[in-house]
Design brief:
The protein is an alpha+beta fold and about 775 residues long. The protein contains 19 helices and 22 strands. The protein has 3 domains: about 300 residues, P-loop containing nucleotide triphosphate hydrolases (Rossmann fold); about 170 residues, no CATH class; about 170 residues, no CATH class. The strands form 4 sheets. It has a 6-stranded mixed sheet. Bound molecules: adenosine-5'-triphosphate. The site of adenosine-5'-triphosphate has 13 residues, from β1, β2 and α1.
């Protein structure tokens, strides 16, 4: 008897214990065959408004292996309901269902999913194949969900298709198959995991008569040859001929139960086969091999903790994305736009910050205090930039007093000159600032770092790299030699762009047009009328700043020429450009410098010293102050920009949510199919979340690329048109990672609600969806 039992040791695929141990209730037990399925007093009620619909009323039935049982009855009689209850697709309202000895009415949702996956095969009236998968992929689906390795999946799917005469249709999609063929694929899928139970709900309902007969013959074969328990719901009396047993149902009750073939014969049929294991397919190995492999995953499944492989979910999600590529691209674009905006804005924030911080480094060491003739009128940090408030002139005397203040090490005048540089007929506007006096050059951090050339060279010119490039790039136009005042300049101006270094040692004419205080000191622009150009030799190139440098004595000469009048109007006539000794400007008027720098003895001296200088009526700015306020300002700017990008991302996320919600509605049937072949709720949720994550990741990558591209473009444009030396936009690795991470996170958050809605769908309802 044991060898006739379903689920004995020979049946590796069956995870459920087979010790049913129930004696026959309707006489069939006398045949010595134990029932695979026992229904005891099963009831099912539905509520429709206030109405109580009884779809199954006290149904008791035992179903045997090797038997094809037809359930017949009028529409609405409760046939499908009974089938769904047997297959664990729906819950009973009362009574008990024992399947292979286990009470499925008491199973938890996951156990029930495992039961459906491993013990039951479903065949539906409208085939319910996934239209975008090929026939073979459809057959592989339950195996994919059960974690059967790919080669075995394929081998078994092909064996089943061959068995049902569909070997040459394996790569066709359902739309390319006839109804009969599609239903045979559905039967093959139902048998993929070699289940002992095959439940078919009106499998011939959508078929013509001939195809209907073919399917019924096939189902009978599956019952008799494989020894499976096959239950077919139909209302077509024509097909009763294939049944071993006919159960008639009306109003949820069994009306009659008739054996058309003696149960013994069915039992004998079952006994001659090792149930569910032997496939009468052409491949002798395929049958036994596949169940064994399936069996490996099955014990886990029985325990209800079997996970649908993540790989399977990933594959399903990827195929879903591929199928609706247009929509996925659209949704991903939303994410991409949000991420791009965020990356661009944060990148610009970071670029500005690093540019300013780097620029600050060129302002001098932390011990330097920038002094302005204008007293600060409020605000902090950049207060010195405002050229307002009462003015205290920085005269040579005042400079000496500043240098003599307690805590001060030295003081020197500073100015920013707006100059026109000319070389080989090419003219370039440049901002030129002065170096400290040579006696202070050893003070750390005071001299800019040279990219090329070397210190020192009195009377020399250190060019900003961008200015050098501009001088060189104009060379093509300069060939005609308009105005080439410096006769010594020849060579490097040719058609091709030479490197900035090639300018070292070359002479450049510098014509000062006016001056202001230094960058931080601020101050009004004082124009200089008709200054005679000075020829200076280039001694070095600096990077990372837009300023070029001249020596202190040279700057002093210019300051005294322009500033001799005491600021305000244009300086004295151009004759004074040359070598007046410091402090003795033209017409005997005292010189006023536009700005100064006081170097403190130590960092600790900076604050008290700045205070003392302030008391003298000057404005002061320290690098320390600026660093602090800039860091604070940029934190705010960056956060603000990030928030704007974040809002874009939230909008994109909402878009994803809407699209996924629509997708859930659209794919209810697919969800139902997956549930029918054993996917758990959380597998469905995961499927949608993975799909969202895939779209989010792709959108994130695209967004990082687009944002990075836009940033690169912004850099190129500011370099081209604004001669910027600093990158406006930077994208550190963390920003790229953050962008992709946000893309994934936004879609996961947005996908959460639709995914859980999909997971909550009732399998039967889902399958009923159009
Ligand atoms: N989800 C549901 N909510 C409310 N009533 C339902 C639900 N499902 C089924 N019913 C009702 O239960 C009864 C039995 O339905 P069932 O589908 O099992 O009958 P059937 O015999 O399979 O009919 P048909 O041959 O038309 O498919 C019917 O009255 C039906 O309207």
């Amino acid at each position: 008897m044991s060898e006739t039992r379903h689920g004995n040791s020979g049946h590796d695929a069956d995870p459920l214990p087979a010790d049913v141990g129930v004696s026959g209730g309707d006489g069939a037990g006398a045949a010595g065959v134990e029932p695979v399925l026992i229904l005891r007093g099963v009831r099912k009620h539905y509520r429709r408004g206030s109405e109580d619909i009884v779809a199954a009323a006290d149904v008791s039935l035992e179903l045997y292996p090797g038997t094809l049982t037809c359930i017949l009855g009028p529409s609405g009689g409760g046939k499908s309901t009974l089938l769904h209850l047997m297959g664990g697709m729906d819950r009973v309202s009362g009574g008990q269902i024992l399947a292979l000895g286990r009470d499925i009415t008491r199973m938890k949702a996951d156990e029930l999913a495992a039961y459906r996956r491993t013990a039951v095969g479903f065949v539906f009236q409208s085939f319910h194949l996934l239209p975008t998968l090929t026939a073979r992929e459809n057959v592989e689906l339950p195996m994919l969900l059960a974690g059967v390795p790919a080669p075995l999946r394929r081998q078994r799917a092909e064996a089943l298709l061959n068995r049902f005469g569909l070997g040459d249709r394996a790569l066709h999609r359902p739309g390319e198959l006839s109804g009969g063929q599609a239903q045979r694929v559905a039967v093959a899928r139902a048998l993929a995991l070699n289940p002992p139970l095959l439940l078919a709900d009106e499998p011939t309902g959508n078929l013509d008569s001939q195809s209907g007969h073919e399917i019924m013959a096939l189902l009978a074969q599956v019952a008799h040859e494989d020894g499976r328990t096959v239950v077919v719901v139909t209302h077509n009396e024509e097909f009763v001929a294939y049944a071993d047993r006919v159960v008639r149902i009306r109003d949820g009750r069994i009306q009659s139960d008739e054996w058309r073939r003696p149960p013994q014969a069915a039992a004998a049929a079952a006994a001659t086969r090792s149930p569910g294991v032997q496939m009468t397919d052409t491949s002798a190995e395929a049958g036994p091999a596949a169940p064994a492999a399936v069996g490996r995953g099955a014990p886990e499944a029985a325990a209800g903790r079997s996970a649908v492989g993540f790989q399977a979910i990933l594959r399903l999600a990827a195929s879903a994305v591929r199928r609706r590529l247009g929509r996925a691209v659209l949704t991903g674009s939303g994410i991409a736009i949000g991420v791009a905006a965020m990356v661009l804005l944060i990148g610009i924030g970071a670029g500005l910050k690093s540019g300013v911080v780097r620029g600050l480094a060129t302002l001098g060491p932390l011990t330097s205090i920038t002094v302005s003739p204008y007293r600060q009128t409020g605000g902090s940090g950049f207060g010195g930039l405002a050229a307002s408030g009462p003015q205290t002139p920085i005269t040579p005397d005042a400079l000496r007093r500043l240098a003599a203040l307690p805590g001060a090490k030295a003081a020197y005048a500073t100015a920013t000159f707006v100059a026109r540089l000319t070389r080989s007929g090419t003219q370039v506007e440049a901002d030129v600032v002065n170096l400290p006096p040579a006696s202070l050059w050893h003070t750390e951090g005071l001299l800019p770092t040279l990219a090329a050339g070397r210190w020192p060279a009195a009377g020399g010119l250190v060019l900003a790299e961008s200015t050098a490039k501009a001088l060189l790039s104009g060379g093509t136009a300069g060939g005609s030699g308009t105005g080439g005042a410096g006769g010594a300049t020849t060579g490097a101006g040719g058609g091709k762009q030479a490197s900035p270094q090639s300018l070292i040692g070359k002479a450049v004419d510098v014509e000062v047009q006016g001056m202001t205080g230094n960058v931080l000191g601020g101050g009004a622009f004082t124009p200089a009328a008709s200054m005679v150009p000075v020829q200076l030799r280039v001694i070095g190139i600096v990077q990372g700043t837009a300023f070029s440098y001249v020596s202190y004595p040279q700057a002093l000469r210019w300051m005294e020429t322009i500033g001799g009048g005491g600021g305000g109007s244009a300086g004295p006539a151009g004759g004074n450009h040359g070598g007046l000794p410091p402090g003795q400007a033209g017409a005997g008027r005292p010189v006023a410098y536009p700005g100064a720098v006081v170097i403190a003895r130590s960092i600790d001296d900076v604050s008290p010293l700045a205070e003392r200088i302030g008391k003298l009526g000057y404005g002061t700015t320290t690098v320390q102050d600026i660093l602090k306020s800039i860091t604070k300002a940029f934190a705010v700017i960056q956060a603000g920009l990030g928030v704007i990008g974040g809002i874009a991302l939230v909008v994109a996320g909402l878009m994803i949510g809407v699209v996924l919600s629509m997708s859930v509605l659209e794919r209810r049937r697919e969800i139902g199919i997956l549930r029918a072949v054993g996917a758990r709720r959380r597998d469905i949720a995961r499927l949608f979340l993975v799909e969202a994550a895939v779209i989010g990741a792709a959108g994130g990558v695209a967004g990082v690329a687009v944002g990075g591209g836009a940033g690169w473009l912004a850099n190129a444009m500011t370099r081209q048109f604004a001669h910027a030396t600093q990158a406006l936009f930077v994208m550190p690795v963390w920003l790229a990672v953050l962008g992709i991470g946000f893309g994934v996170a936004a879609s996961l958050v947005a996908g959460w609600a639709p995914a859980s809605r999909a997971a909550r769908l009732h399998p039967v309802e889902a399958l009923r969806a159009d």
